[in-house]
Design brief:
This protein has about 160 residues and is an all-alpha fold. It has a domain at about 50-155. The chain contains eight helices and no strands.
Length: about 160
């Protein structure tokens, strides 16, 4: 069982998959929901400080490099442009917008992307952590309930 929990932890750290893949995996493997959920949240949060404090610096460092420069520049420009639009629309509700962005489980809207956006927008780290953690909790609830419903419907057929 420990091996399955470690897999849940590791899956939740993978970009794009994150907790959105770890929670359904845990449920499908028959693991208890609450411990799996907590492990997935912790795993999803482990990369956050590194992303917040270093990803932007790495992108800025690599933007003028021969092979990776174009992609890194694209990421910076896209993040900055999207961030400015979000700031404009959200106004004082920027952290609520970040919470909802991370919390609605759609592809590319997880803790990794939300944290990178917060870094590019120079948002406050502590407030960003709260918004992202709450968003991850919401996404986990949605994914857990969704998985349970799909499994229930699947068992009817």
């Amino acid at each position: 069982m420990l091996k399955k929990y470690i897999i849940v932890f590791l899956i939740s750290m993978v970009p794009l998959v994150e907790l959105r893949g770890a929670v359904p995996y845990a449920i499908a493997m028959g693991l208890p929901v609450l411990p799996s959920y907590i492990i997935a949240i912790i795993g999803n949060m482990v990369p956050m400080p590194f992303i917040f404090f270093f990803a932007r610096k790495v992108l800025e460092w690599g933007k003028d490099k021969p092979v990776i420069g174009g992609f890194f520049t694209f990421c910076l420009e896209k993040g900055h442009k999207g961030g400015e639009k979000l700031k404009e629309k959200a106004g004082k509700g920027l952290y609520w917008a970040l919470f909802l962005f991370v919390g609605i489980p759609l592809p590319g809207t997880g803790a990794w992307t939300g944290t990178l956006a917060a870094s590019i927008l120079d948002m406050d780290f502590k407030k960003s952590v709260r918004a992202v953690v709450c968003g991850v909790v919401l996404a986990g609830i949605i994914m857990g309930l969704g998985t349970k419903i799909v499994m229930l419907i699947g068992s009817l057929f």
